[in-house]
Amino acid sequence: MPFDTATEATPQIEARPLDRSLYRLILRHSLHDQLQVGSLTLVSLPFYYLSLELPKTIINAINGRGVPATLLGRDISQTGYLFTLCAALLFLVIVNGGFKYAINLLKGRAGERMLRRLRFRLFHQVLRFPPAQFKRISAGELIPMITAEVEPLGGFIGDAFALPGQQGGMLLTAVLFMFAQDVVLGFAAIAFYPLQFWLIPRLQAKVNRLDRERIRGLRVLGDRTGETVAGLADLRAGDGIPGRLADIDRRLDALYRIRYAIFRWKFLAQELNQVLGQLTPFFFFAVGGYLVLRGQLSFGALVAVLSAYRDLAPPWEELLEFYQSAEDVRIKYEQIVEQFEPPGLTDPVLQLSEPEPLPVLAGGVVVEGLCTADRSAGPLLHEVGFSLVPGEIVAVIGDSASGKSVLAQALARLVPASAGRILLDGTDLASLPYAVSGRRIAYVPPAATPLSGTLGEALLGGLRQRPFGLSARPRDREALERKRSGNSPDALDLDWTDRHRAGVADQAALEHRLIEVLDLVDLSEDVFRFGLAAKPGAVDTTRLLAARRGFAEALAAQGLAGQVETFDPGHYVDGLSIAENILFGTPIGRALSPRHLPDLPYMRQLIERQGLAGEFVRLGRQIAETLIELFGDLPAEPDLFARFDGVTWEELPELRAILTRAARLGLHQLGTADRARLTALAYFLIEPRHRLGLLTEPLKARLVEARGAFAIGLPAELRPAVEFYDPNRVSEAACFADNILFGSIRPGTAAAPIHALLTETLERLGLHAAVILAGLGHPIGSGGSRLTPVQRQKLAIGRALMKRPAVLILNEAGAILDAGSQSRLLAGIRQEFAGRTVLTFLQRAAFCASFDRVLVLRNGRLVEDGSPAELDQPDSEFRRLTSAG
Fold first, then answer.
1. CB 817 within 8 A of CB 824
2. Which candidate in 157, 457, 550, 731 could, as Cys together with 723 as Cys, close a disulfide (CB 3.0–4.6 Å)?
3. Helices and strands in the chain: count of H runs, count of E runs
4. What is the SS3 assignment for 421?
5. Are 612 and 701 in contact (CB under 8 A)?
6. Distance CA 780, CA 157 (A)
């Protein structure tokens, strides 16, 4: 039945259009903050006026004028009166400084709140963009607008009313004070203000016009830079770099000319303003001096007026600079709003509202006369119509120009209909809140780009739309600040996973469901490998120790025990470096990592006490000599050299110089820095890997002794930085594989049989699922960059399956998989989605034989509809497509 809009929950995030006027935006959202600053500014002005008046009184008191006989009922001398006035002046300086600090703090907070609000709104606007908008504007243009271009707005918004109020108030107070001393001097102080008011805006208008051109040029330059980075391979392959450099040069030249013109007009305005400002003291000294000589003005009053005029210049300059920056910021804001208000924005009410309760949909789909159009490409779909009954498994086929991908996107609400409609269980899809369609329809594109995070977070992404338990969360400071800044009301650290939609009741059942879905999309083995490299976390240590013992027994039973060096505290492990042998544990953090170990003062003291310092220097020299001999005369081969961890290719000249000094002076006469460098080189020696023949059995025994001394004498502050290898303990800092292997695979040994045995042991002891769950913590990188394309696609399909949608849309989602994997996946989906609707848009039409029904598109029209057997006729479009594969 149609969706009842009366049950719709009002969105808590602002949904009104962006304000076209920057000042309207400021007043709408920060009026309270602006009133606070304004009130504090008004309270501060009387204190500022007194700070102008007191110097005159002090000078007159020094001259013996106006000194009272008593003060507050007590006799007072001229000296006492002077010091009292000076103390009052000091007090006013402190009070005025306190007012400025408080006002600036309030301004800063108001500006940062508005900056946070504006960035949030702009980001939200991007989420509302119609898909076609991203063909006209790139991420290279959007990113700097949200980050860098709005940055000046934060400072300006805090000053928008506060700075004119504060500086204007100080200016008027100073002018009022000067008029109170002498009307003529007051007029002299403001004589050139009218000319400046007339001249500065005209010069600023020229700067504004140029500034608009500058901003547009910078955006195009940013877009060209991003485009170049993305297409660098094509530019290099096609020798297009000279042409691209010429294009960038032309744009930089245009920016240079614009900026130079801005400097000319801006500096002209500044110089004219300074010249006019310097003329005013002429009138003060001429007119004021004359009035003092005539006895019409006291000397103290003249000094006070001059002091007030000195305080008059900074507010006036601040106001002029504010006017210039206000125009600059206004232009930036108007251009930003213009870019973020394209036609066709998604309705924010549909995007953010959530009906209560959420409708349960069966998955019936009816498409009536559907047409879509692209402004550049023209019509894409023409009067497409069909209906799907819940439970149908439907394939959609067509060539690349058939419009099938557009149809898939239209069904997923990614492309708007220009005519016709799509009904979901009798309700127009376009009228449904996205909270309904987004949870009841799952769409998988041809190439998935998951958001950064972990595998588990990506799989559960379809179940995380709203947090649970929000009403039980107290109103904390962060929540209040989010509300004042107009940001999301939802705290990210709440539980966002809707287990009910996954069909489970608790966390244990959810984990079981995750493993089921991973099996279904054939991703379990990949995640298992990730889990072997993950830390065990909360896994039962007894079972892990049992797996360690069982693995050792299995190795012995298959005659593979000699291929793994067990971590025995009494023996040197050949597969580890010297540093790792001495540490003999898993480092936690960087303090005791093998790369930092040579620089540790405790380590240097240890090898001195153990008598190993000279031995390490000799080892380092032999390693350096071997490296120079092998690589010193060869062209740069960093990849070949990478296995020597203690030194880089670029450091070979440094080692050659150290060896030259060692040959001339002897090892004992080398400087501290040279000995330390050779010592550090020795720490990374792994004899079976480097094959230098430098480690003797007696030296290994001494290193094992150093291992024990290292552990015994380790300072208390460093003990939390390492978990020592212990056959009777599980290391929480080590990964699953290292905990069970508890040793090092000997170099040159085939690792595959050992890993297969390890996997078998984990399965036998019931730890296979625990390893997979640990693998869900594997970080996938931005856009899934740490996964292969196949893994990303399987992950996207698994995410869609986790939320159990009523309608599943696979838009060539399995095209990247091999034929066998596609067949298994489709068979699993058919079983999983019994009673629900599946639309699979196939790249290979040959796969459609196993579907209940096939829709055939050609040139944007639905030309055939029926079962595979019904459509398999001579001269049919179905026959042509399936025959082509």
1. no
2. 731
3. 34, 18
4. strand
5. no
6. 39
Structure tokens at 568: 């025995």
Amino acid 472 reads A
d(CA 18, CA 122): 9
Strand 853-858 relative to strand 861-866, pairing: antiparallel
Which H or E run includes 814? Answer: none
Is residue 731 within 8 Å of residue 738, measured between CB atoms?
yes
CB contact at 8 A, 406 and 378: no
Q: What pLDDT, on a 0 to 100 scale, did the predictor assign at position 196?
A: 66
Model-level pTM? 0.75
Closest CA to 686 of 648, 645, 743, 745: 645
CA 64, chain centre distance (Å): 68
Burial of 811 (0-12, 13-18, 19+ CB in 10 A): buried
Read off the DSSP letter of residue 649.
G
- Cα gap 527→64, rounded to integer Å: 91
pLDDT at residue 1, rounded to an integer: 42
Low-confidence residues of the chain: pLDDT under 50: 1-7, 10, 471-474
d(CA 535, CA 524): 18
Both structure tokens of 287: 């007119």
3-state secondary structure of 300: helix
Integer Cα distance of 499 and 308 in angstroms: 70
For 591, residues 6+ apart whose C-beta sits below 8 A from its C-beta are 600, 718, 721
> Exposed e or buried b for every residue in 328-348, given b needs 16+ CB within 10 A?
bbbbbbebbbebbeeeebbeb
Name the phi and psi angles at 420, rounded to 5.
80, -170
- Of 345, 375, 327, whose CA–CA distance to 125 is shortest? 345
CA distance 200 to 167: 18
Give the integer Cα–Cα distance in Å for 865 and 387. Answer: 10
Longest dimension (CA), the chain: 123
> What sign does the CA torsion over 504, 507, 508, 514 have?
positive
Output the pLDDT for position 191. 64
DSSP states of 68-100 as a string? -SEETTEE--HHHHHHHHHHHHHHHHHHHHHHH
Residue 504 identity: V
Q: How many CB atoms lie within 10 A of CB 363?
A: 22
Instruction: Report the pLDDT value the prediction gives residue 561, as an integer from 0 to 100.
Output: 80
Alpha-helix runs per DSSP H in 786-860:
789-802, 819-832
**Residues across the chain:** 885
Neighbours of 781 (CB within 10 A): 12
Give the integer Cα–Cα distance in Å for 44 and 397. Answer: 76
DSSP string, 350-403: HHH-EESSPPP----EEEEEEEEEETTTEEEEEEEEEEE-TT-EEEEE--TTS-
Number of other residues whose CB lies within 10 A of the CB of residue 74: 7
Q: Which of 809, 80, 1 is nearest to 424 (CA)?
A: 1
Extract long-range pairs of 100-109: CB within 8 Å, 24+ residues apart: 100/44, 102/40, 103/37, 103/40, 103/41, 103/44, 103/162, 103/166, 106/33, 106/36, 106/37, 106/40, 106/162, 107/37, 107/158, 107/159, 107/162, 107/163, 108/158, 109/33, 109/158
The pLDDT score that the predictor gives to residue 185 is: 65
Nearest alpha carbon to residue 298 among 85, 53, 541: 53
Closest C-alpha to 828, from 794, 872, 782:
794
Token pair of 303 as six digits: 């000094």
Instruction: Return d(Cα 448, Cα 740) in angstroms, integer.
Output: 35
How far apart, in whole angstroms, are the C-alpha atoms of residue 355 and residue 349?
A: 11
